[in-house]
Write a structure and sequence with these properties.
heterodimer, A: MetI-like fold, two-stranded antiparallel ribbon, B: 312 residues, mainly alpha, MetI-like fold
Chain lengths: 310, 312
């Protein structure tokens, strides 16, 4: 057929974009693909739990509160991670915890990106007094030790009502993390925009009368978007660990299972030789973090080799 | 140099102002009035009013020389933090906690820096070998374990099961006895991330031309690593060391909680439990001031270690 003969030559002329190039490099990295699979597994577990709760499906994950045996039963074939003080299955609680953790990390990421990216872009593009104010705000935030800042926000926001919405449990956690962790991405985007705003394509856009918001959002941001993605995947781990610490300190989810709450239970249980709840939560956090760490690094290396040293 | 320090000090004024503004917004505007909660369920209006007067919450928020806004700044700048919820002076609480906290964080800090920098030199020496790969894998694995797991399992196995260390703080123990295990756990928990960072720094330096020259003129690897690479890697090392200080705070917060050490971290955890805004406010401000001071010290250190950085 003549068609098949012409197609490859057309593709060869087209050239590859940054994204196809990056994805191609990533595909060759076998370990990274395995990690990607693990991340997808965790995400679909969380999504499945949501769906099961909404549609009232009869699956074990959402029945975490059911009493399946005696209190503190050792791990058996039937209950691979044993039972907790109420005789609830630790395995079910661990699986349910994925939903809590991933919800927190996703919402916190979205909040911090929604604040950091536009603020950084606007500060970098306009410069002058706007830039100085933004830099002042984030220098202030970053001069308070991160964990203390999150704790202060969480303590103040907990059980408060804003615009008719009461902030409790899990929303305290992601609001506190999201509102405090936009500094890093804001700083990065500001630097990139300052570097790129003298570029030819920005000059061209300006010369045919593009407005400033259009230049920032249509021309500059798509060109620095890979930085957002890299930052997002590397920060996700930090958010999951922050959720664990906040829940542990009693500022997080109180009514449903979370990995942090499980570790908090384990604090007393361990001295009685009950190690399975702690082990289950640790394993769950460990594999998700490991996959995210390795995948994030691989993503950075394939999308932006220049950032490699950091 | 004096002018440089003065200029840097002037630069910290807006930062301290910003921190105070933030804590005012957080604790006075958003946090609101804790008087009703403090007075308890069956309190009369009089008791609540008394508590408000005691903590200065009855004053206007803004627009007066005696407003809460002005007092917030005045108290912070003179380090008068008033009383905590349990009526004890916050300054006393902090001074009492500073000792145990410092005895925990100072060895942890120097231990972390010494161990991770020297290990990273060893790893840089082993670069490209199977050991190098193994160490990198172990580092990423260590970074992926939650901090709490390090503490809980460390405490359970090393102190409770094997009995090598005391499980909890008690006043009749010598300092070295009760801080030994927390310090070890703190160092091990942070090792993964630190070692990986320093390894990258060292390997970057190893690629430089001056290292090749040093090897070419026949210097031993030991001499190149310690005399040339380490000196040139000082700037990123100093940056990382200062960046690690806020994480030390997290370490001491959780470690003190688990080992019952009555330091600042323990004070903070208690304050979170009882929602004591006054203590959290004071701690936030003090740690921000310390951070600003450390930053200043770092900038001066840059000039001392790197002649290319000037005072201008």
């Amino acid at each position: 057929m003549t068609d098949t003969a012409t197609v490859p030559s057309l593709q060869a002329q087209k050239g590859r974009s940054l994204w196809t190039d990056g994805v191609r490099r990533l595909r060759r990295h076998r370990l990274a693909m395995l990690c990607f699979l693990i991340i997808v597994l965790y995400l679909s577990l969380a999504g499945f739990t949501y769906l099961a709760e909404i549609f009232d499906w009869d699956v074990n994950v959402v029945k975490w509160s059911e009493e399946v045996g005696e209190s503190y039963q050792r791990p058996t074939m039937k209950h691979p991670f044993g039972t907790d003080i109420f005789g609830q299955s630790v395995l079910r609680k661990t699986l349910y915890g994925a939903k809590t953790s991933i919800t927190v990390a996703l919402c916190a990421s979205l909040i911090s990106l929604a604040i950091g990216v536009p603020l950084g872009a606007v500060a970098g593009y306009f410069g002058g007094i706007i830039d100085e104010v933004v830099v002042w705000v984030y220098s202030t935030l970053s001069s308070i030790p991160y964990i203390l800042l999150i704790l202060a926000f969480a303590v103040v926001l907990q059980d408060k009502t804003f615009l008719g919405v009461k902030i409790t449990g899990i929303s305290t956690v992601y609001l506190a993390i999201g509102l405090t962790s936009w500094v890093g991405i804001c700083r990065l985007i500001r630097g990139e925009v300052i570097k790129r705003k003298q570029g030819d394509y920005v000059l061209a856009a300006r010369s045919y009368g593009c407005s400033a918001p259009a230049i920032i959002f249509r021309h500059l941001l798509p060109n620095v978007f890979h930085i957002v993605i890299i930052n997002f995947s590397l920060r996700f781990v930090g958010f999951i660990h922050a959720e664990v610490i906040l829940s542990f300190l009693g500022l997080g989810e109180a009514d449903r299972p979370s990995w942090g709450a499980m570790i908090n239970d384990a604090r007393i249980e361990l001295s009685r030789g009950v190690w399975w709840q702690m082990t289950a939560a640790t394993i769950a956090i460990f594999f998700l973090s490991l996959a995210l760490n390795i995948f994030g690094d691989a993503l950075r290396d394939s999308l932006d080799p220049k950032l490699r040293t950091r | 140099m004096t002018t440089y320090i003065i200029r840097r000090l002037l630069y910290t004024i807006p930062i301290v102002f910003g921190v105070l503004l933030l804590t005012f917004i957080l604790f006075n505007l958003v946090g609101g009035d804790p008087a009703i909660e403090m007075a308890g369920k069956n309190a009369t209006a009089e008791t609540i009013a008394e508590i408000r007067a005691e903590y200065g919450l009855d004053k206007p928020l803004f627009f007066s020389w005696d407003s809460q806004f002005i007092n917030h700044f005045k108290n912070a700048l003179t380090f008068h933090f008033g009383r905590a919820r349990d009526r004890e002076l916050i300054a006393d609480k902090i001074l009492r906690g500073a000792g145990p906290s410092l005895s925990l964080t100072v060895p942890m800090f120097f231990g972390t820096v010494a161990i991770s920098v020297s290990l990273s030199l060893v790893v840089a020496f082993l670069r490209g070998s199977r050991w190098d790969t193994l160490i990198v894998i172990l580092c990423v694995a260590g970074m992926s374990l939650p901090y709490l797991s390090f503490i809980l399992f460390g405490q359970y196995f090393l102190a409770y099961k094997f009995g090598w260390f005391p499980v909890f703080f008690s006043p009749d123990l010598v300092t070295a006895e009760y801080i030994a295990l927390p310090v070890i756990i703190g160092i091990v928990a942070g090792l993964g991330g630190n070692l990986r960072f320093y390894r990258t720094v060292m390997l970057d330096e190893m690629k430089s031309d001056y290292v090749r020259t040093a090897f070419a003129k026949g210097l031993s690897t030991k001499r190149v690593l310690f005399k040339h690479v380490l000196k040139n890697a000082m700037v990123p090392i100093i940056t990382q060391v200062v960046l690690a200080i806020p994480f030390l705070f997290l370490g001491s917060l959780l470690l003190e909680r688990f080992f019952g050490i009555p330091g600042l971290g323990y004070l903070m955890v208690e304050a979170i439990g009882s929602r004591d805004y006054f203590v959290i406010n004071a701690m936030t401000y003090i740690s921000a001031v310390l951070f600003v001071v450390f930053n200043l010290v770092t900038d001066i250190c840059y000039v001392l270690v790197d002649p290319r950085v000037s005072f201008d």
